[in-house]
Amino acid sequence: MNAMIAAAPNGSTVRFPSGACLHADGTITIVGRHDLTIDGNGATFARARAAPNQFSPQWLIQSSTGVTIHSVHIEGPKPDSEGFDHAYEGQPAVDIDNSTGVTVEDSTIRRAWGDFFRVSNLSDTVRIANNQLIQAGRQGLAVVGGANIVFDHNVDANAHRFAVDLEPYGSTPVHGVRISNNELLGPSLGFICATGFDCRCARGPTLYDVTVIGNVEQS
């Protein structure tokens, strides 16, 4: 999978076989790429096992611009019966790091040990929309650094901490966030945790310009 993505030139589309089931215990990486589209075409990308105490996203988008991912199904290895586990929290389904103009849409994520999505390190203009997100060991959406982030029309179900966590590091502010029209279902600790509004997430002071509108919340 990594070889297939690496071989595609910038400005192209990588299209996976329709309905394929692909095994990937490592990280699928999109690093230093520009104007690249990943069309999952309904394929499933499954991780069967996870090693503890390491940062290991299932998909990593890093130092890239103009990346679009759609129609992928990401399956993690977390059993439905397991909740938050500190040893595995560093294994998000999708990590968006230091990237601009990223879209993830029309996809499914199930049974991630970490967050469904983690956005970090001054990422800008990120759109996460129309996804089905079920069973996360940690947060649904975790933003620790970034701007102009839209989380819209997603089903965010059974996150074992918060459905949405906006918790900037001191050196990476978070601003221009829109949380809209989502179904936030059954998180273990709460629906939205934001620095400055909840003492459980008070790591950095640089959170501002956040819009929360049109969401449905159900415990």
Q: What would you note in describing this structure?
A:
The chain has one helix at residues 2-7, and strands at 13-15, 21-23, 28-31, 34-46, 59-62, 65-75, 94-97, 100-105, 108-112, 117-120, 123-129, 132-136, 141-143, 146-152, 155-159, 162-166, 174-180, 183-185, 190-194, 207-213, 216-218. With 219 residues, it is mainly β. The protein has one domain (2-218): Pectate Lyase C-like. The strands form two sheets. Strands 1, 2, 4, 6, 8, 9, 11, 12, 14, 15, 17, 18, 20 and 21 form a 14-stranded parallel sheet that branches. The longest helix is centred in the first third of the chain and has 6 residues, at 2-7. It is globular and about 40 Å long. The N and C termini lie far apart (38 Å). The mean pLDDT is 95.
Q: Largest sheet, if any?
A: 14 strands, parallel
The Rg value, from CA coordinates, equals 16 Å
How far apart the termini lie comes to 38 Å
Query: How many beta-strand elements?
Result: 21
Q: Provide the structure class.
A: mainly beta
Q: What would CATH call the architecture?
A: 3 Solenoid
What's the overall geometry?
globular
Summarize the structure.
The protein is mainly β and 219 residues long. The chain has one helix spanning 2-7; strands at 13-15, 21-23, 28-31, 34-46, 59-62, 65-75, 94-97, 100-105, 108-112, 117-120, 123-129, 132-136, 141-143, 146-152, 155-159, 162-166, 174-180, 183-185, 190-194, 207-213, 216-218.
Keywords summarizing the entry:
21 strands; 219 residues; 7-stranded parallel sheet; mainly beta; globular; Pectate Lyase C-like
